[in-house]
Protein: Histone H4 transcription factor
Organism: Mytilus coruscus
Amino acid sequence: MVQGRRTDFLRHAYFHCFHVKIKNIGEQMIRKMNLRGCLLENQSRNLIPELPERLQCGWNMCETIIDNPEIFYRHVDNHSETFPEGNNLEHGARCEWEGCETVAKNKYKLREHLRSHTQEKVIACPTCGGLFSSRTKFVDHVKRQAGVECKYICV
């Protein structure tokens, strides 16, 4: 197997593992919140998005490349750990991603912002496989689906 293809295959396989993990988080959330669950077809629940050619950190002076998405996302999170604890930092938490000028209120908001650079998703639908950047968006996905008995009938 050609090295580039092997790397692409590993990245793809690692993302499937990550996808299973966040689908499990979605399943737990449905149970915990006593939600009805997704009503969409489950045929595409194991499809994953097209992945970038490389998962490369864009933080200033960091060019780390990691093939495992989970490890890559945790690596990027670690950059936010350089800021102190607290809700409203005096000078904020400046994003040092290449070309970004964002200053977050604290390191937790910076961590959320960093997901816009990495495209990290934190939860997935266990039924349809949809990926979501926040738990709120996932809950909206589940709640906005009308059941068969809830659909409007035109007469």
The mean pLDDT is 88. The helical segments are 3-32, 69-80, 107-118, 135-143.
